[in-house]
């Protein structure tokens, strides 16, 4: 189970978020926090949903309108998705570089000369810049 697992009934989520259950229903209708649903149609909230409900309460207490809150949540969700995608791409690139046959690694000396490094070796100076250049 993770923070995305929809496990809390509306009464529990409302208590965790310190809100009235009717407020959660209204936010669902407005699309601010859309919980998961059971086969029977009951709402199920995740820990992430509860955190968003608390964020909505905080922003509302600071005077942000519901439309402003909706936009803030939308941007936060987009930002989270982009960060996740960057991590996926970084892992895929690292996997590809590691498994690529004939990959060569170079270090730049302080004079700018490129010197090849054997696999697993480090440059002698900790001020050197390491470059990757695939073999053609």
Automatic annotation (TrEMBL):
<dbReference type="GO" id="GO:0003677">
    <property type="term" value="F:DNA binding"/>
</dbReference>
<feature type="coiled-coil region">
    <location>
        <begin position="72"/>
        <end position="99"/>
    </location>
</feature>
<protein>
    <submittedName>
        <fullName>Transcriptional regulator</fullName>
    </submittedName>
</protein>
<keyword id="KW-0238">DNA-binding</keyword>
<dbReference type="InterPro" id="IPR009061">
    <property type="entry name" value="DNA-bd_dom_put_sf"/>
</dbReference>
<dbReference type="InterPro" id="IPR000551">
    <property type="entry name" value="MerR-type_HTH_dom"/>
</dbReference>
<dbReference type="Pfam" id="PF13411">
    <property type="entry name" value="MerR_1"/>
</dbReference>
<feature type="domain" description="HTH merR-type">
    <location>
        <begin position="7"/>
        <end position="75"/>
    </location>
</feature>
<dbReference type="GO" id="GO:0003700">
    <property type="term" value="F:DNA-binding transcription factor activity"/>
</dbReference>
<dbReference type="InterPro" id="IPR047057">
    <property type="entry name" value="MerR_fam"/>
</dbReference>
<keyword id="KW-0175">Coiled coil</keyword>
